[in-house]
TrEMBL record:
Record key words, sorted: Antenna complex, Phycobilisome
A cellular-component GO term for this protein: phycobilisome
GO molecular function: oxidoreductase activity
SUPFAM superfamilies: ARM repeat
Protein name as it appears in the record: Bilin biosynthesis protein MpeU
Stretches assigned to coiled coil: none
Top-level taxonomic group: Bacteria
InterPro entries: ARM-like, ARM-type_fold, PBS_lyase_HEAT
Pfam families tied to this protein: HEAT_2
Length: 288
């Protein structure tokens, strides 16, 4: 049974004193992680209106680790106060335990509070590759687009250790899963210069699914220019108008001055909307 925060901490000063005691015990190595009443009190203190107090408690939970998980999961799942649920998800993000994945997924897809959902997504991203199967199930499932968007966001931030399962997901027959995998692979390629990830994206530039193809083209703007330019420039002559538009925007984002004459030549393009996209790309180049 969770303690009532108004009874446990009747004043802000009482909460602050409690948090100071917790931090002092942790710094001295004398915190009793088996004291359930103490951990319940910490959870209830997450209702404090002061962000710095809640942050201090979240950091403390991160130091406590596994013993705090059942109390945080209970609060995330059942607490009536959304502020407590939000901070519980953030505390679980510090602990990064795979056995919390199902609870975090539940919060991400079901909680009525948008901050709770985004905090749960952040915790899932922190867990990394272990959370990918559950996140991909959300992508493939019958969930609202905002929920799928948060799952995609988490997948994209799962880290370089997720590269192999993401490559497998890129071969899925489901477009939503492949798009989410592309986002994650592109981020890994950008941040780590991973050649395998770059090649995986290059391999779907001529994909049969236009949506996948367009996302792959957009991803090239995050690549080194020596890799992206030889792939993007030929796409300016593609028969598909959307492909040409996406390639133009990617060239603008790359910011390489050498493509300016190529883009300027496309201003004479007669196909609808191309010249307007070229102007946007040129303005991006000139702003760099």
């Amino acid at each position: 049974m969770m303690l009532n925060s108004s009874e446990k901490f009747p004043t802000p000063d009482a909460t602050e004193h409690f948090v100071e005691q917790i931090n002092e015990q942790l710094s001295q190595g004398i915190f009793d992680a088996e004291n359930s009443q103490l951990l319940e009190g910490m959870v209830e203190a997450l209702a404090d209106k002061r962000g710095l107090v809640r942050l201090s408690l979240v950091e403390a939970f991160g130091k406590i680790g596994q013993p705090a998980v059942p109390f945080l999961v209970e609060a995330l799942t059942h607490h009536s106060n959304p502020v407590v649920r939000r901070s519980s998800a953030k505390a679980l993000a510090k602990i990064r335990q795979p056995d919390t994945i199902s609870h975090l997924i539940g919060a991400m897809v079901k909680d009525e509070d948008t901050v709770v959902r985004s905090s749960a997504a952040g915790a899932l991203a922190g867990i990394g590759s272990a959370a990918l199967p559950a996140l991909l199930e959300v992508i493939a499932g019958e969930y609202p687009e905002p929920v799928k968007g948060q799952a995609t966001w988490a997948i994209a931030r799962a880290g370089v250790e997720a590269v192999e399962p993401l490559h497998l997901a890129l071969k899925s027959d489901k477009t939503d899963i492949r798009l989410a995998a592309l986002e994650g692979i592109a981020k890994i390629a950008e941040e780590h210069g991973d050649e395998l990830s770059q090649n995986a994206i290059l391999s779907v530039l001529q994909d049969d699914d236009l949506e996948v193809r367009l996302e792959a083209i957009a991803s090239l703007s995050r690549f080194p220019s020596q890799v992206a330019l030889p792939k993007l420039i030929p796409l300016l002559e593609d028969d598909n108008l959307e492909v040409v538009q996406r390639a133009i925007l990617a060239l603008g984002k790359l910011g390489e001055p050498e493509v300016l004459p190529i883009l300027q030549a496309k201003l004479a393009e007669k196909r609808e909307g191309i010249a307007q996209f070229v102007k946007i790309a040129i303005s991006q180049l000139k702003c760099r």
